[in-house]
Amino acid sequence: MWGLGVRQAITKKAGWLTVAREKAAGNRAWWKGWWQHWKWEKKVSQEEAQRALEESWWEDDETWDSINTGLKGQMEQQRASGLNAKPVHRTWTADFMLREGQSRSELGKWLRDSKIALQKRRRMLQVLTNSFPCGVFLHKIGKLESDRCRLCQKLGAEGPKEGIARETVGHIQSARCRGQREVVIAAHNRCVRAILKEVQKGGKQSTEVQVITEDGECSMTTLWQRQELLEICAWEQVKQAAWTARMERLGRQGTGMECKDEESDGMWACEECQQMCSGREDQVSRETGKCCQCRRKEGKSQQGEDKCKECWWASLDKQRFDGVVIDRRNKVHRLLILEFKRRSDTRAEYWQEGMREAKEQYEDLCRGIMECVRDGWECCFVPIVAGTKSMKEEAWNEAMEKFGVAKVRWSGGRVRLMRVLLEEHEKVLGSFWAQVLGGGKE
């Protein structure tokens, strides 16, 4: 009778055989997409393919797989741009599981953990195999008439049924779902607290690292009432510098969209939010008495890039950093700003999209802070993007290095964050089922 070691070895080899088959399927897909035989009177479609063939045609499968990694990445880029809506391997599950450097080992440990209820691990397997019974899947197999989100419909989403978001796992795991907003925000906040805990305990001189937002995030006006930040720069100066940076980014001159109404004195108070505004750009705003920011919330005003200075400043006052850390360990002190994004990681481009969103969200404000910090200080913006079931190892290490966390703690911190991500992923799914089924059995 085989012992435990033999059984584990067989299971491991069977797993690697499955991986080899999926990679072989990916290679065949690459050949089909990028290589055309000379008998078809066509040439190689990419110089990289021809060069790889000329230089390494005799190599073994393992070397070829390494060579093709970058070329298969081009297929993923095409897919992201809408030119190729097919998985690189045979299935989307294989694409997800074979994505390297995404902390997949922690996902495997979570699935093997007998302390976690079987029902929860089963839900995770359903998500990984794209068979989780959300609206899209149930509609696909004919169990539901519509694939639109049931929670958003139940909570009275405005507009026609066709305008309601599709009930995908990604939608359920996001704050865009009305019924899931509260639990998703709680998941985000727990991840932020876990990251800040690693930052606070991870330095060689942790007493010189101060987490300003240890008690939770707060608005900019509240944040800048703290003496630690007032010693670095003044909030009013930051606002003005941020507005100037915004105008430069938009390629505009002057101070912005000032009021052109000759009958008005320029500034007026919005009847809804009581904020001052200088953007009476048309007859509608004069009749409604609402500022351009309130009208934008109703979908009746111009785009956010066209808000007047007063309304943009009002929105800036309400913005919240996920984390603010002061590091006094070096001669040049640092003000570190954390922005965390938790995104659906079904597609490989989730990380790039999250980084772009984080940078665009605070681009003007961070430039304003950098312009205003006093001598001996510098401002560093540190975005961290995680998938609902993934954490990019290289990106995590870079972020921890910026925060000054000791290298020996990088791996352990990522493992702990992955555990939090997976636990919160399950809580969000549990919340969805509780609302859809009303506490009944799945």
Task: Write up this protein.
By secondary structure, this protein is an alpha+beta fold. Among the domains are: 47-86, no CATH class; 256-318, no CATH class. It is built from 19 helices and 6 strands. The protein has helices at 4-34, 47-56, 61-80, 92-97, 104-112, 118-128, 135-140, 150-154, 169-172, 181-201, 220-223, 227-230, 235-250, 283-288, 292-297, 309-318, 350-372, 393-402, 410-437, and strands at 209-211, 268-269, 276-277, 323-327, 333-343, 377-387. The strands form 2 sheets. Strands 1-4-5-6 form a 4-stranded mixed β-sheet, with helices on both faces. Helix 17 (350-372) links the parallel strand 5 (333-343) and strand 6. Helix 2 packs antiparallel against helix 3 (61-80) and helix 10 (181-201) packs antiparallel against helix 19 (410-437). It starts with a helix and ends in a 5-residue tail after the last helix. The model is unreliable at 36-44, 253-265, 280-286 and 300-304 (pLDDT under 50).
